[in-house]
Structures are given as C-alpha cells and as structure tokens.
Amino acid sequence: MNKQLLLKKRPVGLPEEDTWALVSNEIPEPKEGEVLVQTHYISLDPAMRGWINEGKSYIEPVALDDVMRAGTIGTIIKSNNHPKFKDGDVITGWGGVQQYFTTTGDGHFKVDTSMVPMTKYIGALGMPGMTAYFGILEVGKIKEGDVVLISGAAGAVGSVAGQIAKIKGCKVVGIAGGPDKCAYVVNELGFDACIDYKNENIYSGLKEHCPKGLDVYFDNVGGEILDAALSRLRMHARIIICGAISQYNSTSIQGPKNYLSLLVNRATMQGMVVFDYVDRYKEAGMQMGMWMMQGKLKAEEDVYEGIENFYDTFTKLFSGDKRGKLVLKIIED
Amino acid sequence: MNKQLLLKKRPVGLPEEDTWALVSNEIPEPKEGEVLVQTHYISLDPAMRGWINEGKSYIEPVALDDVMRAGTIGTIIKSNNHPKFKDGDVITGWGGVQQYFTTTGDGHFKVDTSMVPMTKYIGALGMPGMTAYFGILEVGKIKEGDVVLISGAAGAVGSVAGQIAKIKGCKVVGIAGGPDKCAYVVNELGFDACIDYKNENIYSGLKEHCPKGLDVYFDNVGGEILDAALSRLRMHARIIICGAISQYNSTSIQGPKNYLSLLVNRATMQGMVVFDYVDRYKEAGMQMGMWMMQGKLKAEEDVYEGIENFYDTFTKLFSGDKRGKLVLKIIED
Fold this sequence. Notes:
Chain A is an alpha/beta fold. Chain A is 25% helix and 25% strand. In chain A, helix 3 links the parallel strand 8 and strand 9. Chain A is globular. Chain A starts with a strand and ends with a strand. At the A-B interface, helix 7 and strand 13 of A face helix 7 and strand 13 of B.
C-alpha cells in the first residue's frame, strides 16, 4: 500500500495536526511513458506553510484533498517505456508527501548519488541551496569586503548563503536562535559572528558586530529582525527578501516600520523566488558541489523518520527545534 | 532689517506654531568673496518635516536656534568680490527661511529668468522636478507600455513624475485627495486616470484602472496607499520610495504589511534622495525646460505671501490644501 498525506483544511495560524490526514491507497501503476517512484526522503520547508493558504502566491495552493506538496528524492522502481528514466535511476522533484508516486518526469531531475548522499539533493544541492546561491549572488550582488547579515543562519538556506558570502570574501554575521545554533554557525560554518536572537538584543548585537552597518541583509524571517537590519543599513545596501518565517503563521503581517531607511540609504529591498533560476540550477549545483568537496561549504541535515511523523517534524520548522535542512526519511537509501 | 525664522523646538507629531520663532536682525554684510542675496521665493517641501527631527537622516538636522532650512531663489544685491556672481544675478540654493542672507555661493546656482519664471526654479526645474525626473527614470526605469501609479499626483513631485511617464509612453494613474485635484491631474496634466483617496476605495480604484496590475509605483505618501499598491504589483515591478508624507507627523511609522508581495512578484522597492544626482541637474533641467516649452510638461505653483505666513503655509503641505508646488513669496520678482 501507499501511504499518502492529504491536505484537509486551510489552517489559520500555526497548522494543527488535523490540517492533514494520512491515508492508504493502492500503489499506482505507471502509464505508458511514466515511471513509478519510491520516495526515500521528503524535504520540509517553511514555504510549505504558504502553499496551503487559499489563493495564488508565487505558486498555486495545494488543493484540498490533494497530496501535500513537497520536494522529494526517490528511486524509480518501474519505468513504463519512459524516454529518459530507467529502473534504478534516482530522481529529485515534486513527489509530495507520500511513499510512492507516478510521474511523466516533468520537473524531476536524475541525480548521481555515488559521490553525494541523497539528502544533499534536497538540501544544499536542492531548492534551499539554489535559493541561497542565487539570492546572495544575483539579488544580493555581494562583493569582497561587504558586511553581510544572514537571518535563519543555522537553517537550510541561511547556512549556505552565509558560507557563500564567506567564500566570496565578505564579513558575515548570522542571526540564530539559541547558543548551540550560534556556536554551530560560528565554529562549524565559519561565520564571523552570530547573534542569538532568543537571548540577546539584536540591535546591540548588530552595533557590536557590524559597527559600520550592513551592505547586504539576507532575510529569511521578517518581523523584528528585518526592522533591526533596516536600522543598520549602509548606503546602497541590498536586502534580499527570501522568506518571512516569523510571519507565516500570523493572521496579520507585521510590516517593516523602518522601511524609510531604504530612502535615507538609497537602499534596495528585492524579493526572490528560486524557480526563476531553474535554467541555472546545474551551474549552481556544480559550483556548490565543488565547494563541498573542497571543504569550503558544509551542509547538515536534520533527519526524522516515517511519514507518520510528518506533523511533528513539520512543526520543528517554526519552533526552531532543528538545525540545517529538515528532512523526513521514508525508507533507507 | 532681516526677518528670519529660527527653529526653536523639536516637534512631536504635526509641528505647532511655536516650533519656530520669527526674529529681526541686521541685514548681514557679505565678507570678502561672498554675496548678499535678497530672497524672492522660498520653497516649502514635505522633507522639511524630517529636517527638524533629532538625529541625522540623509542630511544633518536643522540645529535649534538656527535659521530654518529651505530652498530659495533670490537676487544678489551686493557682491564683495565674488569670483563668479555679480550684482543682479539670480541664484537658487539653500537660502533658508529669511529675507536676506550671505553666502560664498557654495550649493547655489545662477539661473536665467528671462524665459522661465523664478518659481519654476524651485519647482519643476528645482529639487521637486529633479526628484521626479531621476526617480521615475533612473530608479523606476520606466519603459513604454508600463502601467505606472503615482501618489501625491497633484503635488510638486508627483505631477512631474506622472507627466514624464506619459511622455515616455506609459499608462499613468494618479492618486490625489479630492475631486478637484483629480480633475486637475486628468484634465490638465493628462494622466489616464486619478483615484480620489479621500472619497474612493483605493483598492477598487486600482482594480478598475490597473486591472492587470502595476509595473511601477512612485511613492510619495507611504501608509495605506503603499500597501494598496503592493497588493497590485506585476512581476518585476519597481517601487520608488521617494517620501512618506502620511507618516512624517506620526510618532510610530506604519510599515507596509503587504511587503511580501515583493517576494511573490520578484519586485524591488528602492529608496532615493535627489542629492545623489546633483551632477546631472543641468541635463535634467534642459530636458524638462524643453518639454515645458513644447507644452508637454505643465507645472503649477501655489504661491502664498509673506514670511509671517510661513507656518500657515507650511501646514498646507500636510492638510493637502494646495496644488502643485507650494511656495512662499517674500518679495516681488
């Protein structure tokens, strides 16, 4: 049988467990030209919260009673004359929260797992890594010597964005929740400093670690931290609006009240969605793979097991009780 | 004697009359290399509200007991061996709210008033016009066919920005307060439509006049109108943060709660200050002068008289009880 997680409700605020329901259905048969995939790992991302709201955002919402959307990596266990994929191929794409699925292969990519563990393909070499790469380089336009601030610094996107900025010769300050995460960000990831927003005053931390202000702020969180960053901009600073996890479960969004700092500092705040860079994923993947092999780019996954534990794992995205890329393991690779 | 308006207080909220005091002092003598200027017109601008706050913004605040900062145009009545300026020259610059002043000429420019009335040099050909020109062209990057929204559309900056967008082949929608201003914006300035924010629902107005959304929003006001514009962005839209008159007298700034529309639409919000373009004022002035002569660019001034009436005139900036560039006449030109 195939366990599948269906969306049952449009939640208000932090989703409760009955937002989804786990059902068992027959394992589907691939039609002519399709493949059947068995999923190994499911990617859990803050963006999922947005996908279950009513109304189109940058992507159509998940429909009620549909399988919950998620990035996945899995093995093809049956190809029905697929033109490109064959049995045993490992592919990554939008498999959703289920154990098996069939696909024409549209939007799925074959990957090589001989050198790189599967989980990296939904982490640093997947959507979060691509977001970090194109966000910090293309939108942030970082250059050597820039002072760069990264929120969600211990997370899947922030950890990669900050390390890329270090590779490019920037001074990089992170913001993360709790002393353990901050120690990880500085000692393991090599950031120059990290502000613990749960135990430190962000404004004082910024004053201490960025005394001359910020050239680039990579925003994954919104809210108070965005306002604090705005208060410390240098001339011509760039803010990358990548996410706003502090606001995703709010019923009313907190707008950045310090936004007029953009005027004073001739600064720019620009939004990004990684899908715009799909034609360049390969280039970015090769570059980041190289950095990983050279030991310049580290990526960690926080792996939980079992589709039954989707909800408990999902809530860790918002409680902050995880480090690096949050992943749900379905079966051993 | 020389009547001068001194800053006496740092106001909270809308300034009261005792924020300033009018005093009389001897008319100063120009030192060697200086000129004595008699002011004809003083420019009244929303930015003045910011200049009297504590703390540096994009410019140092006016010090207490100093003459209130203002743009001016006046005639040189005495040159003490000035290397460039002679008696009778008309110069525009930062003369402040006073009848006479001396200067080395730094930051002042000689202008030709044979073809163009003096008031234009502190209006469409002065700081407001330059702000409009560089804001809409350089920051807004307008191109033919763009849908452009302009708030403060009947004001000194918005009226010019919108007309330039029309000249460049855009569809231009204004926002202004009251039916008279809206009629002026459409019938006199040639905008395609104008939404009366005092009597119409802005969201419905935007839906009606910009059914496919906005490519560019030139923001002079902030607050609710900025949020409404954010809710209607098209992909890759640009927002020019030029001012926020709705917030200047607020003790707490209202941040744009719809700012995540920047993410969804890969849009940009960028601040600007006209002083950055000082090297290009001449180029812009020539282009705008040409458009004026061709009848393509109209500019109106709302002129009040007498330095004693500074306060009543100043409050019109915020009550909206004026049209075009607000000017205080000191003596006949």
